[in-house]
């Protein structure tokens, strides 16, 4: 199997680890923009798509603002795509999405929280529950994400590169969509007035309306003590899901706990993609679904 990587940053390296675990013999190629780009062990640098043939799929993990041009290039070659979230940084790509669908090119947009066991547990345990309210929170400190880099230079901090907590942490909107379906209404508020002093939004608040309950989603880049949680207030009790510790509580008692962590979902996700999407006929968060979720995040 040959895999092409476009964008060899920190997130791509997580996918490389997952690929090596899946198949140590896999051939990895990175499409680089400059011949001075640093080489990485066991990854072959190329400078044109013509340098490699019969690619099984491509990982699109360059800055979000470059995704559209990259996808156009891969569509022209008919290459299946594993696309790092968020799909795009704007909503002016309907024709490209329609073209991918028309050509039946296999795609998956990477939202790995769907593979966290606590989220999967709660998906199977809320079906019969009467829900009154849902609260989602994700806060962490952007400078801690990549300690060796100046956080102000990375795409997350820069609006012009497609960054911003409102879509950088699209995982939360994605799993809400996966758990509860499409909302009937969306209100939102974004800002960047924290002490981080970046051009991209560092705070986002969404209110998603459903016929019998509302979902409040709060996201930020500036919380020093990380917290990632989901609270589902039901008629006869409350589920509290601690995503960082892969744990579910019901009425303050632990009803599910797993030793794996969010980092482990990168392998589970990659295994699912290769076995069920690439080599099967499963459609799971493909470019069409991901575009619909992006619309919830960005549409006025």
From TrEMBL:
Highest taxon of the lineage: Bacteria
Keywords (A to Z) from UniProt: Oxidoreductase
Gene3D superfamilies registered for this protein in UniProt: Dihydrodipicolinate Reductase, domain 2, NAD(P)-binding Rossmann-like Domain
- Please state every residue range assigned to the domain named GFO/IDH/MocA-like oxidoreductase: 120-239
Q: Where does the Gfo/Idh/MocA-like oxidoreductase N-terminal domain lie?
A: 1-105
**Which SUPFAM superfamilies does this chain map to?**
Glyceraldehyde-3-phosphate dehydrogenase-like, C-terminal domain, NAD(P)-binding Rossmann-fold domains
In this record, what's one Pfam family?
GFO_IDH_MocA_C3
Q: Does the keyword Oxidoreductase apply?
A: yes
InterPro entries annotated for this entry? Gfo/Idh/MocA-like_OxRdtase_N (IPR000683), Gfo/Idh/MocA_oxidoreduct (IPR051317), GFO_IDH_MocA-like_dom (IPR055170), NAD(P)-bd_dom_sf (IPR036291)
Q: Which family does it belong to?
A: Belongs to the Gfo/Idh/MocA family.
Protein's recorded name:
Gfo/Idh/MocA family oxidoreductase
Q: Could you tell me which species this protein originates from?
A: Sphingobacterium pedocola
Question: What lineage, starting at the top, does this entry show?
Answer: Bacteria, Pseudomonadati, Bacteroidota, Sphingobacteriia, Sphingobacteriales
């Amino acid at each position: 199997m040959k895999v092409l990587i476009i964008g060899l940053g920190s997130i791509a390296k997580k996918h490389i680890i997952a690929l090596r675990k899946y198949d140590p013999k896999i051939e990895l190629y990175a499409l680089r923009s400059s011949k001075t780009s640093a080489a990485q062990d066991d990854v072959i640098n190329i400078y044109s798509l013509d340098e490699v043939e019969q690619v099984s799929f491509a990982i699109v993990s360059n800055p979000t603002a470059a995704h559209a041009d990259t996808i156009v290039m891969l569509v022209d070659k008919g290459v299946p795509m594993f696309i790092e979230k968020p799909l795009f940084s704007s909503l002016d790509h309907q024709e490209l999405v329609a073209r991918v669908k028309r050509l039946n090119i296999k795609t998956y947009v990477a939202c790995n929280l769907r593979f966290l066991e606590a989220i999967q547990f709660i998906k199977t345990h809320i079906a019969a529950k009467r829900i009154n309210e849902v609260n989602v929170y994700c806060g962490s400190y952007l400078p801690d994400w990549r300690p060796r880099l100046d956080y102000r230079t990375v795409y997350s901090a820069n609006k012009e590169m497609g960054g911003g907590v409102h879509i950088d942490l699209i995982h939360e909107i994605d799993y809400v969509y996966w758990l509860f379906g499409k909302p009937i209404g969306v209100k939102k508020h974004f800002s960047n007035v924290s002490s981080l002093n970046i051009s991209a939004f560092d705070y986002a608040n969404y209110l998603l309306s459903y016929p019998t309950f509302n979902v409040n989603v709060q996201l930020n880049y500036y919380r020093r003590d990380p917290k990632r949680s989901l609270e589902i207030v039901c008629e006869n009790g409350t589920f509290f899901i601690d995503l960082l510790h892969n744990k579910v509580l019901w009425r303050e008692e632990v009803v599910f706990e797993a030793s794996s962590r969010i980092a482990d979902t990168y392998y589970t996700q990659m295994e699912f993609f290769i076995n069920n999407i690439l080599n099967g006929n499963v459609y799971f968060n493909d470019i069409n679904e991901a575009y619909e979720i992006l619309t919830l995040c960005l549409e006025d």
